[in-house]
Amino acid sequence: MQSAIAFSPSLSLSTHSRKLSVRGFNPLPLAHQGRHQFSNGSVSFSSARKLGPISCSLKQNGWVSGPNPANPEPESDGVVVRASAESAGAAETPKSKSVRDTLVLGSLFGLWYLFNIYFNIYNKQVLKAFHYPMTVTLVQFTVGSVLVMFMWSFNLYKRPKISGGQLAAILPLAVVHTMGNLFTNMSLGKVAVSFTHTIKAMEPFFSVLLSAMFLGEYPTLWVVSSLLPIVGGVALASMTEASFNWAGFWSAMASNVTNQSRNVLSKKFMVKKEESLDNITLFSIITIMSFFLMAPIAIFMEGIKFTPTYLQATGVNVNQLYTRSFIAALCFHAYQQVSYMILQRVSPVTHSVGNCVKRVVVIVTSVIFFRSPVSPINSIGTGIALAGVFLYSRVKSIKPKPKTA
User: Fold this and answer.
1) In DSSP terms, which residues pair with 62 in a beta bridge?
2) Which strand (E) or helix (H) includes residue 46?
3) Phi-psi region of 231 (alpha: psi -120 to 50; beta: other; left: phi over 0)
4) Residue 364 gets which letter from DSSP?
5) Least confident window among 71-75, 362-366, 390-394
6) How far, in Å, are 17, 58, 234, 304, 345 from residue 180 at the CA level?
7) Fewer CB atoms < 10 Å away: N or C end of the chain?
8) Is residue 58's pLDDT more than 80?
9) Taking the model in full, what pTM does it have?
10) d(Cα 177, Cα 288) in Å, to the nearest integer?
11) Closest CA to 230 of 214, 206, 210
12) What is the pLDDT of residues 277-323, one digit of tens each?
């Protein structure tokens, strides 16, 4: 077996021919008590003597070697010579890892959009046949809670250790999370999917408003400017929406307020906790708490309406409704889980841009699938609002310049 040993001294060679002399050559001695180690692809020489850095240059009177005063380095216990094949193999690792990470991230974005599309389509079909949004919301939290318990039981995701103080801090988040999803389902049951998501494009407006009121975070001029096309676009789309009604409109608006309140409360309460929770664990705990919050409300307000006997009496296809409800609940939990997985890999600004693109995809696919009537002015209003959301996500990354004295 041959080992490749590569030395790379810095040589300064003149183009003119010179007569070399061995005078002044000072070879590097190695102590007899030094150790010599050989391994596959590398050779190591260790010496008990401490050697300084050696400079090697070609002068007119011959080769001269000795300490390099211009480039002092710490003393070393020996000289290590490595085979050049090792560095070549190591250089390929970061590139392959980067390609793999890019493929994983692209797959997550694709799953995020796909689960969201299926959730909105199947959820709308369920709400058109079954006009009980509280019960539908409870079913979604039930399926999500079962999935979380399954993951924790089989160690697919680490089960967290939660203190009483953390549960008390998470409770307000669970309350607004429950309300936000309930209001979204109420809106989807009243108006078209495309119109609900057009209204929900106003989330940045309420985010800025609530952050200024409760966190003291005041927006820059650029951020305020980006909100104008959002508000104007939603207003234009609302005036020309064929499926418009006030119940669906205000439910979507309430969903915006509660969802953004969750973000504000998260900043206000969770940041002070010593033991922080990752996003997926936090979402899992909120899902279980939302189930316990929603169950008594849904039963008290709507009664037990999801039984086969009641559904058959109303003329609903029971198997079809159960299947679509289950798929919608699975996709509801899956797309939020994937969203948090993406957030752990990218910046909030990138995630916000991806969320804007997701809303466009959901609006377009729902219009095509349900054949929703859309006028040109309605399309223009929706486009202006979504363009404002994209602009908002970009200007949020612009940090104000620090004031100089």
Assistant:
1) 59
2) strand 42-51
3) alpha
4) H
5) 71-75
6) 84, 77, 19, 22, 25
7) C
8) no
9) 0.72
10) 11
11) 206
12) 788 888 999 999 999 999 999 999 999 999 999 999 988 999 999 99
Q: Which residues pair with 156 in a beta bridge?
A: none
Residue 197: partners with Cβ closer than 8 Å, 6 or more residues away: 120, 359, 362, 363, 366
Q: What is the pLDDT of residue 211?
A: 87
In the chain, what percentage of residues exceed pLDDT 90? 49
Please, are residues 251 and 257 in contact by the beta-carbon 8 Å criterion?
Answer: no
Nearest to 55 by CA among 70, 40, 77, 45: 70
Reference 379, options 195, 116, 117, 124; nearest CA is: 195
User: What's the average model confidence in pLDDT over 182-186?
Assistant: 96
Tell me how far apart the alpha carbons of residues 13 and 18 are, in angstroms, rounded to a whole number: 10
Question: Whole-angstrom Cα distance, residue 122 to residue 328?
Answer: 5
Q: What is the pLDDT of residue 400?
A: 62
Q: How many CA atoms are closer than 13 Å to the CA of 370, on its beta-carbon side?
A: 25
Greater confidence, 398 or 333? 333
Q: Report residue 271's pLDDT band, with 50, 70 and 90 as the boundaries.
A: low
pLDDT of residue 268: 67
What contacts 54, CB < 8 A, 6 or more positions away?
Answer: 28, 65, 66, 67, 68
Task: Please report where in the chains the tokens 């919050």 appear, as a residue.
Answer: 293
Contact 133, 189 (CB under 8 A): yes
Give the strand pairing for 42-51 and 76-82.
antiparallel
Asked if residues 295 and 138 have their Cβ atoms less than 8 Å apart, the reply is yes
Q: Which two tokens stand for residue 129?
A: 């046949």
Dihedral-angle region of residue 282 (phi above 0 means left; psi in -120 to 50 means alpha; beta otherwise)? alpha
- List residues bridging with 79 in a β-sheet: 45
**Angle, vertex CA 199, rays to CA 194 and CA 201, nearest 5:** 95
- How far apart (Å, rounded) are the C-alpha atoms in residues 49 and 376? 84
Q: What is the C-alpha end-to-end distance of the chain, expressed in Å?
A: 68
Q: Give CA separation, 53 vs 75, 132, 157, in Å.
A: 8, 80, 52
CA angle 235, 237, 240 (to 5 degrees): 110
